[in-house]
Amino acid sequence: MIKKILIIISFLAICTGVSFANTDEKKVCTGFGTWTKDGEYKIVRSKCITEKEYQASLNAPDYLCKYYQKSIWKESERPYGKKQYQYTDSSLTKINALKDEGKALCDAGKLRDGEAKLVEAIKIISHTRMN
Q: Span of the secretion signal (predicted)?
């Protein structure tokens, strides 16, 4: 009987210690998962950051520059985006030129001017007919 009580007390002490040890910030992971042929769920392209790191990235001065560039890439440069819209060669050329100009301005520290160029490119994408 005493052994059982000691085992229970030991178990509770270990659980309490573990719960206090896990008080640091939780990490948020992005990415997606797939089922393997073996029936196992596997996370692919996962990136984990803490809430503080996430908030810091959102409040960074160059956040919009990075966000707009990624958006333009998704919609006009990667194959899936090109299938979604009916781009002409001239509109793609103009989008890429505006993106490059905007990136150069952002890299030079002229964030507002760079964001304006990137928004121009996004407007062209937005007014392009979809398939």
A: 1-21
